[in-house]
Specification:
CATH class of the largest domain: Alpha Beta
Number of domains: 2
Distance between the termini: 28 Å
CATH superfamily of the largest domain: Alanine racemase
Structural class: alpha/beta
Strand order of the largest sheet: 8-7-6-5-4-3-2-9
Mean pLDDT: 97
Bound molecules: pyridoxal-5'-phosphate
Order of helices and strands: EHEHHEHEHEHEHHEHEHEEEEEEEEEHHE
Radius of gyration: 23 Å
Strand content: 15-25%
Number of helices: 12
CATH architecture of the largest domain: Alpha-Beta Barrel
CATH topology of the largest domain: TIM Barrel
Length: 350
């Protein structure tokens, strides 16, 4: 039997989350963002379950897109980072990919070849990570034949969409809309937070990422990370646990050791007190996170505890966002960091 440490992916929840996001913006098409192995959930499994209902997919770079095409995906695939080098345009042409254009240099790459690729021209409306200035867009578009322009899009990316009151949101929305009007091109702007928080940002295409994976409340959790108890002991008041002996018992304490650690993607800096679920009850992490093991105080657990009992690190009963907050990061990072040694298993339940 393999190690009983699993990332269990609920594919029905992925479908439900996609439909829920689409219902929030019914006039828009919704692109499922499945880069980084679908935020750690398994790109091909997620793509397969969404294929009958999704309008398209987005990935980060051409390698991810090619893997998706080679697995048989026939839907539109947008490459969010565009071409890293001119040769990526030939790949985009071969595999029928949509390419984001975000650097002035890209216009020369485009005009050097004659591919009927759909280009998404990305404006830097304030994020200052990728994107063209208005002047760069204007100069670049002037070089392109009408046949390319007729088949292209404008896009931008929110910097602060998850802070609905942030003034940059309105400025970004206003800028992309006015340019779209000027160039008479369709637009893509909203990510998950944009879909949920900013109806003025709903445009031709929205790009749904973290909400697809249940990263927002009101969406269904998708990944449950779990493992089992492989050690049980009782320590005395005053005895300490783990590397560096960073947690000391203040009473007679039952310690359960669970077979998952930072080598599996569980965050090493999770502090004492980080919660998990055992038999439906909350238990608290005590002592340092090891490479392959965690230790929990299970003294107050009212159920009989046995070796092999399952512990949920996050999932249906404890939201990944709560753990992310405990460890001072975001749910995106926790989900994408699950190591390959964790067995993914897929289920479909409503
Ligand atoms: C350009 C772009 N669009 C959309 C998304 C999806 O964002 P979210 O996961 O917040 O929905 C991302 C994610 O990083 C992105 O980089």
């Amino acid at each position: 039997m393999p190690r009983q440490t699993f990332a269990t992916i609920n594919l029905s929840a992925v479908v439900a989350n996609y439909q829920q996001a689409q219902a929030l913006a019914p006039a828009s098409k919704t692109m499922a963002v499945i880069k980084a192995d679908a935020y750690g959930h398994g790109m091909l499994a997620v793509a397969e379950v969404l294929a009958p209902i999704a309008d398209g997919f987005a990935v980060a770079f051409v390698d991810e897109a090619v893997a998706l095409r080679q697995a048989g995906c026939r839907l539109p695939i947008l490459v969010l980072e565009g071409a890293h080098e001119p040769a990526d345009l030939a790949i985009a042409h071969q595999y029928d990919l949509w390419i984001v254009v975000h650097q002035p240099e890209h216009f020369a790459w485009i005009t050097a070849v004659d591919y009927a690729i759909q280009y998404w021209f990305k404006l830097d409306t304030g994020m200052h990570r990728l994107g063209l200035s208005v002047a760069q867009l204007q100069a670049g578009l002037a070089q392109l034949p009408a046949s390319i322009l007729q088949n292209s899009m404008l896009m931008s990316h929110f910097a602060c969409a998850d802070q609905p009151e942030h003034p940059l949101n309105a400025a970004q929305i206003q800028q992309i809309h006015s340019l779209a009007q000027y160039y008479q091109l369709p637009v893509s702007l909203a990510n998950s937070a944009g879909i949920i928080e900013h109806s003025q940002a709903h445009t031709a295409w929205n790009r749904l990422g973290i909400a697809l994976y249940g990263g927002y409340s009101h969406f269904r959790p998708v990944m449950t990370l779990s493992s089992v108890i492989i050690g049980l002991r009782t320590i005395a008041d005053g005895e300490a646990v783990g590397y560096g002996q960073t947690w000391t018992a203040t009473r007679k304490t039952r310690i359960a050791t669970v077979a998952i650690g930072y080598g599996d993607g569980y965050p090493r800096h999770a502090p004492n007190g980080t919660p998990a679920i055992l038999h439906g009850q909350r238990i608290a992490l005590v002592g340092r996170v090891s490479m392959d093991m965690l230790t929990f105080d299970v003294t107050d657990c009212t159920e009989d505890i046995q070796l092999g009992d399952q512990v949920e690190l996050w999932g249906d009963n404890i939201h990944v966002s709560e753990i992310a907050e405990e460890v001072n990061t975001i749910n995106y990072e926790l989900l994408t960091r699950i190591a390959p040694r964790v067995t993914k298993q897929y289920k479909s339940t409503n």
